[in-house]
Amino acid sequence: QVQLVESGGGLVQPGGSLRLSCAASERIFSIITMGWYRQAPGKQRERVAQVTSGDSTNYADSVKGRFTISRDNAKNTMYLQMNSLKPEDTGTYYCHVNAALGTHWGPGTQVTVSS
Question: Is the model's pLDDT at 1 over the cut of 90?
């Protein structure tokens, strides 16, 4: 069973940056999409960034121009570079892989943006 593990979360001041990583325990074949989601307390989980098998990317309007999703296939790792962070970016961030043989979620990493 493939496992995803996020890392890189933490406490950061408004305007700061964080880089999240999502490492897979093994290579995942026939990936359709990979993405990052977040869930703030009392709110539904929302997708913030996604990259397709063809390397097309899309972002939630709230993070466009500030977040960048990328992946390193050789390392079975996906990243989310987050710049100009705002308090409303606070939440638990989850990585997600949608593949032909199934979907996978990581356990999440907490991001808190506060002064």
Answer: no
